[in-house]
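Students often ask why we bother encoding 3D structure as a string. The short answer is that it lets us treat folding as translation between two languages. Here is a chain of 603 residues written in the first language.
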Amino acid sequence: MRPALRTVLCTVGLLLSTVLFPSSALADNPIVQTIYTADPAPLVHNGRVYLYTGHDEDGSTYFTMRDWHVYSSSDMANWTDHGSPMSLATFAWADANAWAGHVAQRNGRFYWYVPVRDRATGSMAIGVAVADSPTGPFRDAIGRPLVNNGEIDPNVFIDDNGQAYLYWGNPRLWYVRLNTDMISYSGSPTQIPLTTAGYGTRTGNAGRPTLYEEAPWVFKRNGLYYNVFAAECCSEFIAYSTAPSATGPWTYRGTIMPRQGGSFTNHAGIVDFNGGSYFFYHNGALPGGGGFTRSVAMEKFTYNADGTIPTINMTTAGPPQVGTLNPYVRQEAETVAWASGVETEASGEGGINVGHIENGDYLKVKGVAFGNGSSSFTARVASGTGGGRIELRLGSATGTLVGTCTVTGTGGWQNWSSVTCPVSGATGTRDLYLRFAGGSGYLLNLNWWQFTSGGGSGGNLLTNGTMENGTTGWTTSGGTLSAVTDVAHAGSRSLLNSGRTAAWNGPNQNVTSQLTNGKSYTTSVWVRSQSGTPSAKATLAVTANGTTNYHQLTPAQTADTNGWTQLTGTATVSWTGTLTNASLYVETAAGTDGLYVDDASFQ
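And here it is in the second language, the structure alphabet:
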């Protein structure tokens, strides 16, 4: 840990986060190590978990919070930092307290409900912002408070019949029925009776007889309604109640997470993802952490056979990884399981980059599937000084060195350039550490990285195989081809071929100039349908002397855990006469459902 914390300002769209962890730390909990985070609100969307958090400012001695942040993961181990898409400035009528919020999705939009202080009344109110993407940017949906009764901690639950409910409250507990527009409600707010039967008995506080304190999290499972809440300050533990309906009557069920973790508050969120159940919470585990400088963490758990929730304790390990990470497609530098000594900031190339890197800092990326090995590593870098080195190590920050990339000055911290270096010995599935080395002061910034498979001397023959550059290099044989950011196998973008009218419609790319007669080529492409599982295939169409031959390159299909299917295969391509056209394209055996494509290689 550095001798002193570096305090910096955070504004909407710009996250400059403070170094918090020593380089010797190896655990994966808390989830975020670059800033203090609090009040987790997880949301599952299109094969990813999006985590919405508050942000405790460094050195806080109160709940000093000015903005909110978003992170996401497809494997529950490596989390991508999406920065801050919303702050107090989003709400012109608010002047303080960017406290615990919750995001709900409906009708293709994302609604973020947050408690802030109403400038006009000086009391806490619930505002609502809306975005067209889970990562924002978010804008004030109504230009005024949605509800204003001086209480906090909103949570939204949408029942199976489509009725949405907003719950909130400290010290009382309220609900109101939201309309389908999610920004207005019907009827009046209703106060939920806080009975000891419903919310347990508090000891030593006659004025507040039940355990309920704040932070309701309501959800439904197997026909039973759950309300998970922070109980009996201070310090708080996490408890829960159940009911036969969204409005009660509630029955107290007991403790989920006991008092622990160095913070006198706690705040829970629960989601199911990829067949597992996950419990999010916060504690004071980071250096300098405490009740006003908190950090979000999570645990995987299994419900008891009768539907009750077991006791869950905080760990430093966190949950196991779901699947692996593919190093042969572009990976954002801010996608990590652990970050030591670095900060993140808005990149001049769009998105977020890792910056303020000094000697000995590192990034840990968990469960990287190198397979039979890599031949090279490419990184997108910038440096306003003389640069430094990126050491590629396996297993730990001092583990086996498999490659070193030297970065020279680029003339500015946002003047980006790509560097490539050879790699040897990176095989199998390993934890990857990008360790930074060099002189004193800041060395370099890192935007993204990608390995090249050792199996192909020429590398990927496709243009924009990662889809991170939009539709560049790609076209479609039918329908509309567009770049999307709300669904991605890796990185931040994929291609969507919508409006298909025939099974043979799909994304394609011309590779005529890339082919060698008689050579074998291997393809890999990840596909996903908008509904269901596509009967997808990748085909190379080779036209010579007026005759077209079709080489299906995907005899093997591998489904991952997030709705994507990898098509892989090898074919020897040969022709007689003059080659006039060769195109690699993705299609389906039947159907016209919209088709997502990402992370394609042909080599």
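Translate back mentally: The first helix runs from residue 196 to 199. Keep this in mind for the problem set.
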